[in-house]
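Archive entry. Fields below.
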Amino acid sequence: MEEAQYEVDLGNLMAFDQHHQFASPPVSREEIVKETTEQATKLVQAVADALFSLPSTEDPDGPLVKLPEPTTKLPREKPMKGKLPKPRPPTQWEVFAQQKGIQKRKKEKMAYDEQTGTWKRLHGYDRVNDDNDIPIIEAKATDEPGTDPFAERRKEKKSRVDKQEGNRLKNLKNAQKAGALPSHIQLAATALPITGTQSQPKRVSKDVLQNVAGMAATATASGGKFDKKLPGEKPLKHEKKYRKYLPAVEGSGMGTIEKQQTESVLNRLMSKHSHQILNVEKAVNMHNAKKEKNQRRQGGQSSNSGKFKANKKSFKKTSKKGPSSSKGKSK
Amino acid sequence: MLKIKTPKSGRIKRDLEKRAPKLVETRKKTLILHGTKTSSVLNSVLTEIHHLKKDNSIKYSRRNDKIRPFESGGETSLEFFSLKTDCSLFVFASHTKKRPNNLVIGRFYDHHIYDLVEVGIENFRSVGSFSYDMKLAPQLGSKPFFAFIGEAFESVDELKHLKEVLLDLFRGEVITNLNLAGLDRVYVCTALSPNRVFFSHFALRLKKSGTKVPRMELVEVGPSMDMVVRRHHQPDDSLRKEAMKMAPDSTKKKEKNVVKDDILGKLGKIYIPDQKVGSVPLANKSKGVKRERREAKAAKGEGDNPTTPKKQKQDSE
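PREDICTED_STRUCTURE:
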């Protein structure tokens, strides 16, 4: 049994005895425990020897010792990030600045405000050149009489801020693509547009959402009466099919509603098939025959007056419908 | 449509930065959870491991049905938990007929499974079954000693892996300054056979010895169990290489003001501070200014009291 050479990893306070073998196969549990305890004591003693021989500083709690680095290499838990500081692509501004040769300048803490004639800070409360502090804006020749210049300034500022937000989002998207998003920023998808275009999906209100099931129920034959409801779903606003029943007792007004209903249906039918229903020739002949009879009775007047000439044309095409139709007219 | 989410409060920002990858890593958190079925033995094993690593472990009490670490689809839940709790070690217990008292110890790299070791627990003795003097009980969070006994830890692949994983699991924080008075525990692993390891936990007692190094005495406390290695899963070479990358050595001091030129060789810069012409104390004081002379004069002057002081020679050297 070689005792001298244990592998000692001082940084981990570890000792490894490679060469130990159980002299005789251990029979009982106690033997194992005993043997283990003995060996372990020796190992720990070896580590402690090395440990206590390190230079120590005195401390109220006890002697402090500076441990060396552990020799057993263990795998990391996260990929290394500190080494590669910025592989991210340059932002839009950085590209532009590089092109134009613009250098970064250090900002001063205070700036002189012409309006009040004092030194004020650059951003925040009570700042230099605050938009709200401008009392008078002189009108330019290009200004229209009705426009409010203060409102114009505010609108412009808002558009500038929005543009900047869009640029910031673009820069972060590029950084994310390159895998170099700063650790405290996350890009989250708010809503996935189902439309193929860039249009914003319309925000559906809570009431509409609650009635959606009811709207879909009207497609069923029973009007959604037997649909299974989820817990918490409100009952349908209109549970039955849409039907209109005539009143049992009708008022005196324009006559029976039922008669009107049937009449309108009939009129529509007639107007469509008027050319098939009316035999124009026969009607004309009958009319002429009647007329002749009357004239013979009244004795020998001009025969051609009032007689109709049969017109073979169908009455259907003209806006004037056939003589027997009275579409939409109430009698 | 993307939205930029930045933390609105400083607390959240600090938490996110704590979870960000660092150049040098000091501590790993452990996730302790169990599967569909556990036995009483496994339950006590889990609670005791949780107690041993109290301040950097998280124990889930509900059962998790969908976790099967060794199957290809069964580790998604584990990876999600690792992401949410920022844990890079896990201990998963399950008890089936085929593998009774099964414990899977695994590690994550970048919140994906790095490696796994599956052991079966036998002959478990819990903390309560050991009787010892309460004063010796190891303190929570103290840095432990490790003792690995047996050549099988070097020759057998699985035991080598298990050794590494156990070291990682119980190591605690990696620190540079250690207080020698606070050493009070040892984890001992003995290889009883090529697939069986006897794991136990001892408290340390430092006894006076003649020399500066105290004598160590071990008292068995804490859980002890037999671990039978069942399966294990090693990472691919490329993944291992990536995970083992160490931070560049920044302890070497950079030499300042030295430039290595190709033609002239090594060039150094020396900075000379400005000369303070007026305030430099002159080495040779003029004769009359010397202190002894002045004192002697003063002593003599008490008796004589001359009306005109002597004119001093202007000795400028």
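CURATOR_NOTE: Chain B has a mean pLDDT of 86.
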